[in-house]
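hey m, so remember when u said the tokens were messed up on ur end? i reran from scratch. heres the input so u can diff it against urs
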Amino acid sequence: MGSFSLHPLLPALKLRATALHQQGDRLYLGTATGSVQIYSYDSSADDGTVLPQLKLLKTHNLSKRPVEQIGVLSESNQLAVLADSTVTLYPLPDILPAKGRPLSQARNAHAFVIVSYDPSSTKGKRTASTDSTSTGAEGVSKEGMRDLLLIGCRKKVVVFGGGKGGLKDAWELALPHSPRHIVLPASSRSSFPEAAHLLYSPTSSVLLHLHPTSTPHLSTTDLPVAPPPPSQLVASSAGGSSTAVGGKDEASGGGGGGGSGLSMGMGVSALSGLGGYVGLGGKAAVPVGTATVGGEVLLAREDLGVFISSEGNYTRPQSLQWPGPPDGLVFSNPHIYSVVPLASAPGTGNPAAPTSAIQIHLAPTLSLRQTLPIPAPPTGGLSFSALVSLSATPTGPTSPAAAMASSAKMLLVSTPTDKTLLASEGSTVWALEAGDVGEQVDELVREGRVGDAIGLVESVGEAGLSPTRRLPHLRTLQAVTQFARGEYQPAMDTFLTFNVNPALVIAMFPAETISGRLHLPRDRWMELFGAVEGARLEPESESPSQADGPAKGLLKSVTNLSLGKKGSTENLRASQAKDDAAFVHDEKATPAAMVDDGVAPRAALEALMFYLSDRRQKLTGAITSLSQPLPAESSLPPLSSLPAVDLHALPNLPMTELEPEQLLRMAQVIYTALLKVYLVARPVLVGSLCRIENWCDVEEVEELLKAQKKFGDLIDLYQGKKMHAKALKMLHDLAKDEEDRLDRYPPTVRYLQKLGPGELSLILESSKWVLEEDPKMGLQIFTADEAEVEALPRDQVAKFLEKTDANAAVGYLEHVVHALGEKGADFHDKLAELYLARARAAKDSEDTEAAYDRFTDFLGSSTHYRPYRLLNRLPGDDMPEARAILLGRIGKHEEALRIYVHRLKDYLAAESYCAKVFATDPDPHGIFLVLLRLYLRPFSSSEPLLLPPALSLIAKHGTRLDAGSVLELLPPLVTMEDVQSFFVKTLRDGFAKKNEGRVVRSLTSARKEEVERVLMGLQTKRVRVTDQRIVTSDWDSRLSLCTLRGAR
């Protein structure tokens, strides 16, 4: 069902209506008998109807000839009536024929137009308009507004109201032809009109210039002779009862030439065989035109409507196309209403078929909204005498919602041409009702004509419309249609302008490579973006049968007639041919459209990268401006677990206005899509995105990365998301394919080195396979010079390595003890135990000796192990040297020396042992005497007397032994020669000590005497303390006080 409908407002008037005018709450109807009927006009009835309510108030007989035109001078409150080629002014509200004042200067009048203006605007000053109807002097309101009346007469134009005398003052200008219609461009109500269009015929007109402040006051300018812009062909009907028009003129000029729509260069009088269309067989057609907005006018040039400015230039690159010359034309924002001829195809034999229709075009886009056939009478045809747009009634301010509601927009008078019907029924006044603007917007969107919906809303404004019918939403839908046509970058620019949810944009890309779960098929895109149910991406294409509809049938029926008019048919054909060629060229240059499967076109991917990069930048700024950090991704369900409908429902708001959780979800959608599009269009950028902080959903991209063998980038992504187990498993799987150990293990080793103590269990578990295959390489996991490695708990690492590989455990403990300086007894004990175990387990003598040396070296160098624990682990009589070291560590020096002397027979080792002990405890009766006693006083008969070692000991270390104890231990048979060196050293050492004591005593005595002498000298000084010698500074006071005390 269409948005417009035609209703009989005053059916069967029993008379012939010839003129119609509506002003405020009054409707004036002129008749063929010269009378004027006045009706009350109420468009705000309380019964719920949309059509205005009419009531006949009065009838005035003003002329003996038909009334041709009616108008109201609102400022001077007068009624202008054109009858018998004369314009007569009658005072309102009471119309008295006796008080009518004919304008004698405007004899032989054909048409007039009325406008109000502020006289001050003629001097360049504009004031606010007023609706007052009170008057002072004739033709001048008390508030200063005036009426301006332009009358087109025979070969002249007369302007009343432009001078100081008001309507009594007239300007005239002679013309070469008679103006049959006057169109005044729309302008501010308070401004003086600068120009008017005088229409001589359907093909010729001039531009009239008004100069109120200079003479002459009137002048004309010819309109441009250049061919009019090409027409905009209408490809399909608007729905409902509409009739399709348009297509090429295949019947004219042979089959090859590109025509200009339905224009044949003929007037209405040429269609004499097609029924009762106005002017059939009568006088020449009257030119028609109407003002639109912004000083623009629409003039009918036969079957073309051209748009011209007040300067006489074409304002639009396209013209409006009709099926034939229109009989009536009127503009009511935002639509253009025109009465045009229709004709049934030859041979239908239906005399009641409509021969005329009202076409409604959307002014901003010139698209055909609807075609309403006017019901035809049973016999004959129809003539049309008036077509007027309706003005608002002065019932107070209108709310935005009421302004958008259904209402009557136009009135039309039709009269049957059949004399019998004319006598029995007379004329009918029709009202054209326009549906609710919001519903019209929805209908246009549903038809796939989003651009027309935008033009409609731009024309009427957004006040009173729901958010889904306002420009931001409509422009977003238009961007969706652009995207569907392959205009990707303009669509993305619009999405950015209106902060469209990225999930919606991404959903239009192929699921396999970009959108994944977010994807929706092409036929659901409009629904996805919130369009009305059933909305199409593009208008439905016209079928061949529609292309050969009634309008084209009209042309075919008159093809063989030798008719023609001066016009621009050939020019239009040439223009259309150029348009066709340009269309073919554009078709070749149009980017590929999006498909649901496969890979998106390159242009679409580039546009998506541009869009996501901008969203990413805005996202970063929004996150930075947050007062608190975003929620952790781990605290929310993963993105892959959310239904797609939840992501589609994210708000279309600037990033800074989103809640933290919404911002996080938006970040996940943006980064995930950006990584996917990089994989397809810019693979070199994948790595950099994976290595920085990002919000990619790993589950959605990991398979894509694996498919393209981006294993390193995937590992970086795992690492950034702290999904270390997955990363290490992948490293292990990749290592299986490597043969070179330098390529096989280092990646895993480096990864584990960076984890830190928080992932200890994972580190230990993941290092097993490396330790099993290459313990030396695996040991680097725990010994690297990295802060994370040094922070690992050493005890747990040591226990793990001991269970996994003993050699690795030894290497780790050596690193901890020697490189890191660990002093814990547990680590030293464990290392000693491992050394011991290695020495006991060695099978080869060389290995055993090396392991034992390493064990004893450690026992000798380390001071942090617990010797008693190790003693318990030593086997019975094995490893005597180690046992000796351990016994010495627990203070059992005699037992340790007995092992060196009697079991090892290593006297040098025994002496070295004693030297170490003596260094810490220099007692002459101590450790060296114990060793000498072991040499010279065996405990049992199995232990021999060791005189040579004993003599060597006292010879080397005699000064460290007590001489008396040595003499007691020496056997009686020892000669003086054997102990000579001992006595010499002992005596020398004794004398040296005595001499040293004497020297020290002498030095001490001398130092004491010197100090006493200095003290005596100081004590002999005296100082008298007076007020002048007192020092105020704290430091100087203390210094002076000390000096005084020393002097005393």
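this time it looks ok to me. Confidence is low (pLDDT under 50) at residues 124-142, 234-282, 393-398, 542-588. if urs says something different then somethings off w ur setup not the seq
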